[in-house]
Design goal:
The protein is an alpha/beta fold. The protein contains 27 helices and 25 strands. The radius of gyration is 31 Å and the shape is globular.
């Protein structure tokens, strides 16, 4: 460690004062809430206003709970018309004011804080100094200064931090602070990067809200945290109306959601919805991973194809049918009739009048009862009288169900996939005969017993859009059955979404504002895109989409990236990997084992890696089919561990199936049987590339089968 910075004590005093002011603000908010709770009387308007005020206070109290994260992490000094010619601003994750309402900490999202992230030696943005704090809890451990102006060009001086070599990449700010953050042990959940955001990341975070922003970022570039910080920035900048419209974050799986769940709350934004696509489809059961069968790759590709939307449209239209025979119903001393030609006219009119299927049922019933009333040749009768008398007649109910049934998405697809005749009728001009046959599955006795696959999620949602809400009592539509829209949507690992899944995400966009992030080289889905235009084609286009890239890899040491690049060169030769910002302490290790000894060798490698990373976490990334074998081997060796599908990354050692490893980061990673990963996964080489690019410190590969060509 170098000598303490001469201003370390002054900065510590400033940070201490900021926490005193924050605590005072929190206490004041609690007192105000207590006062509003005590006053329960008054008019309805007064109670409504008190409740709204109370909700705002609760949110403010939540925002002020930093959960141990550093309040202040930097300072900028810029030229100003003041006695000494310089004014200073301390930058933090929340704005804090003192008793005189003078702001002593600036929110990192405020315009005045932008130079902290964007200033360079060539473009200082008015700065004369940028200061970074290394903070643990409330203690300032070290200070790193970057000076601007003639003769400096943003040169860094780190005091109180471990001395480091200059950054190998031009434009990296706060290099010592950045390395200290990168080399800190992982905790099993993703942390924010608000103190170490780099210029290319900040440019994306503060980009205009309108339209679709695509962020291409290789492994370790921080694309996930950039997207989450962008959500926090947009909520700060466009608080009204975004807070009411809502912000939605869509992740690839529940392990990933658990991994990122603390980022937005640590930035003071606790109200953002974070979901997987299946969470957006209510009232159905989905297949249990490792328990229920999954769709074969061929079926997964069919269900993800955009043509399935036409099949669903046709399937709905095929359920809007005229009668085969006339309807004759006893009434008073005679009969009411409804002919086949009448039914054709009613169905055609309902199709013209109604954009969505279920809402048309009310009009069909009205037209049917009106036609039956017109068929009466006795004393005058009213349509309402006919409705009251015949609506419960089984023959009439059966006729209405044939002409225009009220359907749930599950009922529609259950009938479609369970009936070869219905499938051929809906898909004959859209899919091939082999594709139609592949969609068939035996019907269940009860549609509520069906466990739908992950590939069915988007089909159910498409059907929900076409069918619309079911009419409730009195013909009223249940608003809870409508598809909710959001003011901004973030989609992570977007390269793995099929056209049908992309359309599902787009369906929830209120105004076309989306941030989608991914890496084409890591595309392992059923219909992996070759270029970003293939993704944008299925997203809102009211404003032209933009594609931006992240070029610097912060997480992965250069030695590991070099080995992984060999796999990427074979999997996606047209793409370039990010430039690593640091050199690791150890080169990747490759261990060959005998088949009977695989589990024992993996356990031995795990113990060795855990000893080398006492403050970090270790993941054993395995082909899905080997998770039990490897877990049993660890248990036999006495190594405590978790399973990612059950406990996330809460344990120091975790067995992670390769199918859920995407987006995670660990200190050490052991990749088991790379050839098996390549053989088992839909995009095998890309899945192996994903597995190899998870570690921040060490990588070991254990194999019994011959290595893939790119690793030999």
């Amino acid at each position: 460690m170098s000598q303490p910075h001469p201003e370390l004590a002054d900065e510590q005093a400033y940070v201490d004062h900021a926490y005193v002011c924050l605590d005072r603000t929190r206490e004041s908010a609690w007192r105000l809430r207590t006062l509003t709770e005590a006053d329960l009387g008054g008019t309805f308007q007064a109670r409504f206003e008190r409740n709204a005020f109370d909700e705002a206070l609760v949110k403010r109290l939540t925002d002020l709970d930093l959960r141990g994260a550093a309040l202040v992490f930097g300072r900028i000094d810029r030229l100003a018309e003041s006695p000494d010619g310089v004014e200073s601003f301390h930058i933090g994750r929340l704005a804090v004011a003192d008793e005189q309402s003078e702001q002593i900490v600036v929110d990192w999202r405020a315009p005045v804080a932008e130079p902290f992230y964007r200033a360079t030696g060539r473009e200082p943005m008015g700065l004369v100094r940028r200061r970074h704090f290394a903070v643990e809890d409330r203690t300032v451990l070290g200070i790193e200064d970057e000076l601007f102006g003639e003769g400096h060009l943003g040169v860094g001086h780190d005091e109180g931090l471990a001395p480091t070599a200059p950054s190998p990449i031009e434009g990296i700010r706060g290099y010592s602070t950045l390395l200290a953050a990168l080399e800190r042990g992982r905790t099993g959940v993703l942390g924010d990067i608000v103190a170490t955001i780099q210029a290319e990341q900040d440019e994306i975070i503060r980009a205009p809200q309108a339209g679709v922003l695509v962020v291409q970022g290789g492994p370790g570039t921080g694309k996930t945290v950039v997207a989450l910080h962008r959500a926090a920035y947009l909520l700060y900048t466009h608080r009204f109306p975004l807070e009411d419209q809502g912000v939605l974050v869509i992740g690839p799986n529940r392990v990933f959601l658990r991994y990122i769940e603390r980022v937005l709350p640590s930035l003071g934004e606790a109200g953002v919805e974070q979901v997987v696509l299946a969470d957006l489809v209510p009232d159905v059961q989905f297949a249990r991973p490792g328990v229920d069968p999954t769709d074969p790759p061929f079926v997964a590709r069919i269900k993800g194809d955009a043509r399935m939307s036409r099949v669903i449209d046709n399937a709905v239209r095929d359920r809007q049918r005229p009668l085969r025979e006339p309807l004759r119903v006893p009434f008073r001393t005679g009969y009411l009739t409804f002919g086949v030609e009448d039914s054709r006219r009613v169905v055609a009119a309902a199709r013209r009048r109604n954009r969505r299927h279920n809402s048309g049922r009310r009009y069909v019933e009205g037209d049917v009862f009106a036609a039956m009333a017109a068929s009466w040749r006795g004393d005058p009768i009213t349509v309402s009288e006919v409705r009251r008398v015949v609506r419960t007649d089984p023959v009439v109910r059966a006729a209405l169900e044939r002409m225009w049934p009220v359907l749930t998405p599950a009922e529609l697809l259950h009938d479609l996939f369970g009936s070869p005749a219905l499938a051929r009728l809906a898909a004959s001009n859209v899919l091939t005969d082999d594709e139609i046959a592949a969609l068939h599955r035996p019907r269940s006795d009860d549609v509520t017993d069906v466990r739908w696959s992950a590939n069915d999620v988007a089909l159910l949602d498409d059907a929900r859009e076409v069918l619309g809400p079911r009419p409730g009592r009195g013909g009223k539509i249940d608003e809870a059955d409508e598809i909710r829209t959001y003011g901004h949507i973030v989609v992570d690992e977007v390269q793995d979404l099929t056209p049908m899944q992309l359309a599902m995400a787009a369906r929830r966009s209120l105004n076309g504002s989306m941030t989608v992030v991914g890496d084409l080289a890591q595309a392992t889905g059923a219909l992996a895109p070759e270029r970003w235009g293939d993704v944008l084609a299925h997203l809102p286009d009211r404003t032209p989409g933009r594609v931006v890239g992240l070029s610097v890899g912060y997480r992965i040491p250069a030695q590991i990236m070099e080995l992984a690049d060999r796999v990427m060169a074979e999997a996606a030769p047209q793409l370039r990997s990010p430039t690593a910002v640091r050199i690791g302490d150890a080169a990747p290790e490759i261990i060959e084992a005998r088949p009977a000894e695989l589990a024992a060798v993996v356990a031995e490698a795990t113990a060795k890696m855990a000893a080398a990373l006492p403050a970090g976490n270790v993941a054993i990334v395995v082909p899905d089919a080997l998770a039990e074998l490897v877990s049993d081997g660890l248990t036999a060796a006495g190594i405590a561990h978790g399973r990612a599908t059950r406990t996330g990354l809460d344990d120091d050692v975790t067995v992670v199936p390769v199918s859920v490893v995407k987006g995670l980061e660990l200190d050490g990673v052991i990749v088991v049987e790379p050839a098996r990963i390549v053989a088992d996964e839909l995009q095998g080489l890309r899945a192996l590339y994903v597995a190899m690019t998870r570690p921040t410190q060490r990588l070991t590969i254990v194999h019994t089968d011959p290595l893939p060509r790119s690793l030999r």
